[in-house]
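Appendix B, example 12.
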Amino acid sequence: LDIAHAPRGFAGSGAFVFVAMGTEAMFGLKGKDFVIVAADAQTSFSVMKLKDDYDKIWEVEGKLIAASGPTADASNFVEMIEKNIRLHTLRTGLKLSTRAAANFTRNALAQSLRSKGSYQVDMLIAGVDADGPCLYFLDYMGSMEKVNKGAHGYGAMFTFGLMDRYWKPDMTLDEAKDVIRKCIKELEVRFVVDLGKYICKVVDKDGIRLETL
């Protein structure tokens, strides 16, 4: 799975066009009984910074959906996914599992890729199901993989080695937060752009909460 992909994109006509990978950083780690997700809080257009307090991690029926890409694409696509997941709950009285929500999202991405207006969105979906915590990696091409750790944006290029080195199956929340801090520090040292502050959230059997790094 080529997670740290190169510049990419497809036009509605089927012709290939280059869409630069977002100047963003988004990380996810699965722990012993939780999943932690962190993302930068910056939005930009061209060379301009527009906001530095934007939350890129949505909370949808006990799940975390982190999305990177053009702000309009990410916001519109996640809102569409959120409304459809809630509509399913209203119609059936049953909540989708994290796996089911990830599969629905992957299918929506794949359908949009074959339409005139595809969404350039990369995502991490996290939740806790009956069989434990789970983290799903999705990219704008409609591929999906269940992973123990994942990252999106230019930040992914600098941090996969760190996550490979420090991740372990039974890691505690404090250990996971320390890995996230190491990833952020690596970007501060090596990445040419200062991404500013980060928002970090955790999902476990007790629900979702904001964490301070």
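Confidence is low (pLDDT under 50) at residues 1-20. Residues 71-92 form the longest helix (22 residues).
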